[in-house]
Amino acid sequence: MKHYYTDNTDLKSNKREIEIEFEGKKFKLLTDDGVFSKNRLDFGTEVMLKEFLRDNKLKKFKLLDIGCGYGPVSIILSRYYMNSYFYLSDVNDRALELAKLNLEKFKVENYNTQKSYSFDNISENFDVILSNPPIRAGKDTIFNIYENAYNHLNKGGKFYCVIQTKHGAKSTEKKLNEIFGNCKTLGIHSGYRVYVSELV
User: Fold this and answer.
1) pLDDT digits (tens, 9 = 90+) for 36-91
2) How far is the C-alpha of 185 from the C-alpha of 58, rounded, in Å?
3) CA gap 48, 42 in Å, rounded
């Protein structure tokens, strides 16, 4: 059985619009079968965004939204940081197509999209990298994202991720400490942990 961390181009399309709400702001986004959290804003993603907004001190930044899906992370953050640059990547062509349509709908101008498995096709560096890692893809894939995030941050840049305690949060914390030399727990919400590591 395929999961969202695959290229579902052969899956029958069922495009539709959903409405998501975040911190009192409402967003109508185009979604489809075969993409992550197709019917709502994923709870883990929501809590990561809230912790990021509380932690972030930058007014303008270059952000990598890795595993972007149909684009909710970048679109929501573009309402808070209109002058920032958003780089969206995903292994799924359908997700990237939807992300572009949603970015255009919300008139986000400073963005780029890239098909990439982990960081295979990403050469740029960033101030911020956000990830809700693909648990079903396995620990090797997740740890590959963490290791490459370290190599694609600017000095002082931060990597944020969210993971359920039962799906290996403690091993993520240990791995991030090994890679970055630091890992801070920003919040714990209903079994989800939000971590941040900084390139110092």
Assistant:
1) 999 999 999 999 999 999 999 999 999 999 999 999 999 999 999 999 999 999 99
2) 19
3) 10
Whole-model pTM?
0.93
- Cβ 150 vs Cβ 160: under 8 Å: no
Task: Report the sign of the C-alpha dihedral through residues 173, 22, 135, 108, in that order.
Answer: negative
Contact 44, 28 (CB under 8 A): no
pLDDT in tens, 7-26: 556 789 999 999 999 999 99
Helix then strand then coil, in percent of the chain rounded to 5, is 35, 30, 35
Closest CA to 171 of 118, 122, 133, 120: 133
Are 197 and 183 contacting, i.e. CB atoms less than 8 angstroms apart? Answer: yes
Find the largest Cα–Cα distance for the chain: 46
Q: Phi and psi of 54, rounded to 5°?
A: -75, -35
Q: Using only the alpha carbons of the chain, give its radius of gyration.
A: 16
Residue 157 phi, psi (nearest 5):
-70, 160
